[in-house]
Amino acid sequence: MSPPDDHLLWSFSTRGMALEVRVAALRRLHEWGTLPIEPLPGCVAQADISRWAFGDVGVVLGKLGGLRQVVPPHAREFRDEVFLGVNIAGMAVASQRGQEHILQTGDGVLFSRPDAGFTSSRPRSSQFLGLRLPYRRLAPFVSDLDRDPMRLIPGQTHSLRLLVDYLCLLGSSPPLRSTELDRAISTHILDLIALSVGASQDAAAQAQGRGVRAARLQAIKADVASHFSEGDLSVTEVAARHSMTTRYVHKLFETEGVTFSEYVLACRLEFAHRLLTDRRLAARPITSIAFDSGFSDLSHFNRMFRRRYNATPTEVRAAERF
Q1: Does a structural domain hold residue 291?
Q2: In terms of C-beta density within 10 A (0-12 exposed, 13-18 middle, 19 or more buried), how is residue 155 classed?
Q3: Rounded to two decimals, what is the model's pTM?
Q4: What whole-number distance in Å separates Cα of residue 200 and Cα of residue 184?
Q5: What's the domain range around 108?
Q6: Number of domains in the chain
Q7: 321 vs 208, 270, 272, 288, 289, CA distance in Å?
Q8: What is the arithmetic mean of pLDDT over 11-19?
Q9: Is residue 309 a part of any domain in this protein?
Q10: 250 belongs to a structural domain
Q11: CATH code, domain with 64
């Protein structure tokens, strides 16, 4: 188990554990109420998971294999909650009160009454996402939430894919914690779940303008973070990769008071600053750093850098030496 770190509450991995040790450790997780899982007979049990929290939404992300999640009926910890499980990759079997769904890659299942008990089995290693949130938060947005206590959500559901991408990005690079930001992220998650399940007309319109927009902006930012070093990176190229229009991408950034170009420039300058203040790279030419950061014109780099940091690249590097 790892110590809490910002939004991360805990993480657990069986990597490097002997078989008899990992089974005992998994059973302790169950006994402590941390995660209700148990080994499947004849399978090799393995787990590599992390639990996060954004406001009143709990998120579990990782891999499980040779294990079964078991929530008994009337489980107190699931009272008045909703549970959503998404099979990101691999296969799982979800069961509740005689019903069974086989989840393939991308599929999700919503338990609107998890306190009725359910099981989720993963004989082989599979990547998954699990979410818990208060029933009272989702119910106003989905008029027939109780229609089916175990509801299958097909993997091709666009809002479900957005939800997975959004949370995977947050998990890989969590934002600084604040009450206001936690509330916003939990609202975005709620919007995307509601759309995936079947939000009412008014709720769907609200979610499209809030949760979907936030998830798409996060995806665009992640794309820029992966490609800003390419000097010819353009909004047209990024928009095409996400099947969006350039106008829509520009509107996404307008909500944060910046332009697409300004965001790309900020990413490049921050990267260059990080390289310049790394003492291990003290002998690396500034020209090389500028080009590796996505700048094709050295004079433009120097001018933008000084405007951002009120110092030249040479001055910033020299200051780091002392």
Answers
A1: no
A2: middle
A3: 0.81
A4: 21
A5: 8-227
A6: 1
A7: 50, 19, 16, 19, 17
A8: 89
A9: no
A10: no
A11: 2.60.120.10
